[in-house]
Request: fold
Amino acid sequence: MRARLLPLVAASAVGLLALTGCVANATDSAAAGITVDSSADACDVSAAEAPSGNLSFTVTNSGDQVTEFYLLAEDGLRIVGEAENIGPGLSRDLVVQLKPGHYVTTCKPGMTGAGIDQRAFTVTDSGDDIKVDADLDASIEVANTNYAAYVRDQVAQLLTGTQAFADAYLAGDDDTARALYAPTRAHWERVETVAESFGDLDPQLDLREADLEEGQDWTGWHAIEKDLWPAEAEAGFAAYTPEQRQNLAGLLVADTETLNEKVQDLDFTLSQQTNGAIGLLDEVATGKVTGEEEFWSHTDLWDFQANIDGAKVLYAGVRDILLEEDADLAADLDTEFAALQELLDAQRVGEDFTLYTDLTPAEIKAFADQVNALGEPLNQLTATLVL
Amino acid sequence: MTDSTGSDSPGSDSPGSGSPTADSPDAPRGLSRRGLFGLAGAGVAGLGLGIAGDRAALAVAASAAQSTAGTVYPFYQEHQAGIVTPAQDRLHFAAFDVADGTTRADLIELLQDWSVAAAAMTAGRDVGDYGSVSGPYDAPPEDTGEAHGLPPAGLTITFGFGPTLFQTEAGVDRFGLAARRPAELVDVPHFPGDMLEETRSGGDLCIQACADDPQVAVHAIRNLSRIAFGRAAIRWSQLGFGRTSSTSTSQATPRNLFGFKDGTANIKAEEPAAVTEHLWVGASDGPAWLAGGSYLVARRIRMTIETWDRTSLREQETVIGRNKGEGAPLSGGTEFTEPDFTLAGRADQPLIDTAAHVRLAHPTQNDGIRMLRRGYNFVDGNDALGRLDAGLFFISFQRTPASFTAVQLNLARHDALNEYIRHVGSALFAVPPGAAKGSYVGASLFA
Reply:
């Protein structure tokens, strides 16, 4: 309950937005914001005026074509907010923060043309402060450029490391290969969500044995991992033949080279960056906290740290923008990232980490709790920055 | 398990706090920024557009034929709901530990967020301003959504504070509460036969969610635990199906997994004198902040039902002290007839065995002690031996934990039922009084 509640009271008082606290008389509460009816030939907005602040438009497509709703600046050109890809009969909310001024609403049934039924929409001054996004586009562009460079750098290091790892593995120097395994994979894990976007490359390089379908060939890091840590494998597991090793190492290097080529010309939208950070934390939550990722080497904490490294880079890239939009969220994220790093640092052993199998259940629970603590605010990042 | 405590007085006046009504529309809606996931980013925390799906309203039309589905128990009242409220059919109970680094202010904010969310859910609404199916398209919905379109189902959400909230076992006073800890809020003693598991016992905080629809109860715990992420995490939780007690004379007595009626002699909402004497903490009992509250004891009691099931009916009835069909005491009469512990049969042996559960748990054998039981049956899959992991999740509310301790000590020492049960989890919580509108559960503790 904060000062931000004020616009609510004002809005309710003028009857634009009805509270639905009472069970008895609330009928269709989903319609309590501003509604937009997008039909074949009209774009009917339930109000032509609203007080400044956060506004919610619930757009319902009553036509029989896919439609879009646009809230445009006074010039009728610049897009202030949009709700896209609304199928016939469906509804979707557009939540925007609006300054006082004149706007234009329009719908695009069929998703083509300039938009039909353009209407003026006036936002009056509620007295609530709305910040101005200065140089937002420039900041996003800088973040994009920096992140693309980071991905290229990590994949280049991955390639170098993979070649050294493959050489050791082929030479039968298993000790060196084991020592290189986790540190090399860290480069992969840091940009895992990008690597995963290239169709077959991810399964070829990173599939776990449990992910295999019946009869599917197993290649990539984890197939070699099992061979390097045979003591952890099931009884009767036969060490790979030299031919098998040759084949696996060759594919590993070749696929990594392909990955390296593919990341040379990447371009990231803001939401791809923020969703990348969310995706990396999801990787931690599903695979690393549970110890499922490194089933034989138990080097899950290396991957954990690398996922977090990658998420931190993505977050750092957009943090300046976030400070403008929602400093509280930035403060939360700073705190939670730091707390998670503290837990990881407590498990450092020189250059290495504690093996997953040496963690106590209480330590694992602490990791899981902190991943949840970071995950909830992190999942707000896209909506905060993209709105 | 304690088939405890006292006579019923059907027909006496209702204390009122268990009666269903619609929650008032002026209940606060806003969560703190941290508690308000879907909107935090949008910078509209607490905006209160009020367009969240109103499940109660949606459900009224859909379930007009069901009498209990639309029941709403108000959240903001003198005593917390979920105690004398007529026991609902389903339970989801969760104990939480407060996260390291959480401050007193964070804890207060968590309780505020929980209260706001609990008020919304018990009224049949989604959590948050936009609920489960609306709001910013690029944000996760504020409400998880599995109860969307379901009726309120008589949901009650009851909060409690464990001993460790006031002082950790290492003696640390994390929240400046040590001086406010009631002297009685210490772990119940070890009873003979206890095989308690650390991972099913204790906790800084607890939430009891009861409803007539399991999905509604689970939805409550799921959303409250989500709101707590970063501030508190679930330590253990328990699902219960099938109430094992009646807390109102309007309810039939249900059966536990031994197949016997349980809770015949429970305190009922319709006994205001007993409720006042045995249930609510009085103003002069201890710390003032707990006045109007109660103590909650939770015990996870595993039943070795496979063994029980191959026990003769004679043995089963002897162990319980009631007949299996109607639940009448073996001294005769019907279910609600007072047991006669002295009435003897052949060889001058009492008809109700000296080790019978009903005798040992009865108030007359325990200095008049009564409590309000609100337990649930559970079956959590099976163990490695293929036996059902089944039993009773015992919950009792009482004015002082000493009541429970006295009765349980008597049972643990002598009860013939001990051959078929095993206590594997235990927890004690102080349950603060209800919250006033605009305030939050536990406010008196932090005042």
Notes: Strands of chain B lie at 90-98, 156-161, 205-211, 232-243, 294-303, 372-373, 376-382, 388-398, 421-431. Confidence is low (pLDDT under 50) at residues 1-27, 37-50, 57-66 of chain B. The longest strand of chain B covers residues 232-243. The longest helix of chain B spans residues 104-122.
